[in-house]
Design a protein that fits this description.
Strand order of the largest sheet of chain B: 2-1-5-3-4
Shape of chain A: globular
Helix content of chain B: 25-40%
Mean pLDDT of chain B: 95
Strand order of the largest sheet of chain A: 4-5-10-6-7
Oligomer: heterodimer
Largest interface: A-B, 30 and 33 residues
Order of helices and strands of chain B: EEHEEEHHHH
Number of strands of chain A: 15
Strand content of chain A: 25-35%
Number of helices of chain A: 11
Radius of gyration of chain B: 16 Å
Largest sheet of chain A: 5 strands, antiparallel
Helix content of chain A: 25-40%
Chain lengths: 288, 161
Amino acid sequence: MQALKLFEYLEPKTVDEAVQILSKHGAKAKALAGGTDLVVSLRKRLLNPQYMVYIKSIPGLDYIQYNQGDGLRIGAMATHESIAESPIIRENFGLLATACGEVGTPQIRSMGTIGGNICMAGPSQDTPPALLALDARLKLVGHGGERTVPIDEFFIAPFETILGQAEILTEIHIPSLPTASAGYYQWITKMSSVDETLVGVAVVMTAGSVDGICKDIKIGLCSVAPTPIRARRAEELLRGNKIEDKLVEQVAQVAADETTPRSRADYRRKMTGILVKRAINETWRNIR
Amino acid sequence: MGKQISRFTVNGDPYEIILEPQMALIEVLRDQVGLTGTKCGCGTGSCGACTVLVDGKPILSCLTLAVTVKERNILTIEGLAEGSALHPIQRAFINNGAIQCGFCTPGMILTTKALLEKTPNPTREEVLMALSGNLCRCGGYVKIVDAVLAAAEIIREGGQT
């Protein structure tokens, strides 16, 4: 194991302090949360920051709060483990608990944070599809103030987001789901030691007041495009219509056609179709 | 930050370390504290050989900057036995043939300790899930799971955790 190169280590006590430091040092500084991705990059010499700004110990950034009106608010420094095990999230946003429970290994889940995960923006990460299907909004705090962006505007390219150099993601806000909604996250993996996700599909559906009508559907996909994506054309096909086997088949096919996988494209497209169909059927079955 | 003298608590004992920020916890434990029971497998968080318990939770010491766990309680494999009395988990691993080359063993045992504290009566499936971050290159998994279940029974029947 190679030793890491030297850097200055700073431990800000507040978000504002962290933003000041990141602002001051620009591209020479990196914000460190759980370190499960960042320290690996340093060890592999892919990154060489001169300043490591530790934000995981800033108090008050790891909360999980829920009320019916406002929805779910998760502090960016909440670990995958805390989210996967949260009774609130398992009860009301189960697919997110599933997705966070699938990240890495138990050790990585207890160290890694959801904020760090989102900002890493790997194309095959499990949490973004669930967050996309749940219409998550991200609170970013920077030098000029705060802004809230919908998650489907956050990812630009593999490992690239709209997060500014001196910006910190502080909160993930997920609006409450309407009654008669359910969600599901399903995936297949590469079967390697790291067990990276090969295709990930998250679905959230809401039933209409008329029997059998799907009022709303959101489909989030990972590992089938340069960034995590929503399968919007597929969603449109089903939204407002009656759930029928033939239509679900079509929706699954359209979702598969919306993907742009880089490698093993045929297999990934085929599996996207299969997983979307399964996820829709499973979600529909679970709607109370 | 530069070089700093920092106090660490490892296995209940205090140590003064000359700490630099780029040092991983595993380096501090092995090279400075001198506890070489914690093994480095991959150095990139995929194998779990470097697992130690920080405040009771299994973490990867190869990816943890030592400076971030200064104030915490760190438990390594050396901290399990009481003098010459092995911990029930250690005894179970020996008695169930769960140790081949031994390289994954410290990490496996510490992860097991955390599991059994949280879930004293795990199913085979739960054991597999809990150990999914600890790889065994010898392929010793079946015996390892046997050992974990055996240890669980011993501890439930009155051995300590």
